[in-house]
Automatic annotation (TrEMBL):
Gene3D superfamilies: 2,3-Dihydroxybiphenyl 1,2-Dioxygenase, domain 1. Residues 4-133 form the VOC domain. InterPro entries: Glyas_Bleomycin-R_OHBP_Dase (IPR029068), Glyas_Fos-R_dOase_dom (IPR004360), VOC_core (IPR037523). It comes from Lederbergia wuyishanensis. This is Catechol 2,3-dioxygenase-like lactoylglutathione lyase family enzyme. It comes from the Bacteria.
Length: 140
């Protein structure tokens, strides 16, 4: 398999609330909810970097589409890492997401490996890490 991951989809319980969080609170670009004309098709896509997209889709619709029983959500299944270029940027991002309604589970702090990190949960409990790694360089 070649590494061609182009969409990360998060299951959500309230599509409108999650849209507001990611679009209005975090400022991620989107065309809004599309696919409402299809019974299980309402979804929103957010443009990230280099063609990568974040999608939010109702959990019940993911269960239908995959022919699986909808299970209770678990925030510790995975995390999404948002890497930043400095400790100061990490602090700014955490302030922004908190204002948008995120739950800060771990405030910004020095890490054991020499970086700087914090965790927050979106409205559906998905865990995000905001992290500065002094060994990584960023080009915008």
């Amino acid at each position: 398999m070649k590494p061609r991951i182009s969409v990360i989809t998060l299951g959500v319980d309230d599509l409108e609330k999650s849209l507001q969080f990611y679009r209005d609170g975090l400022g991620l670009p989107t065309e809004g909810i599309v696919g409402r004309e299809f019974e299980h098709g309402a979804v929103a896509f957010f443009d990230l970097q280099s063609g990568l997209k974040l999608a939010i889709w109702n959990r019940k619709d993911i269960a239908f589409d995959t022919n699986m029983r909808q299970a209770p959500p678990s925030p510790t299944e995975f995390t999404i890492g948002h890497n930043v270029s400095s400790k100061e940027e990490a602090d700014l991002v955490i302030k922004q997401v908190e204002k948008a309604g995120a739950v800060i589970t771990v405030p910004p702090h020095e890490t054991f490996w020499g970086g700087y990190s914090a965790y927050f949960q979106d409205p559906d409990g998905h865990l995000w890490e905001v992290v500065w790694n002094p060994d990584w360089e960023f080009t915008e």
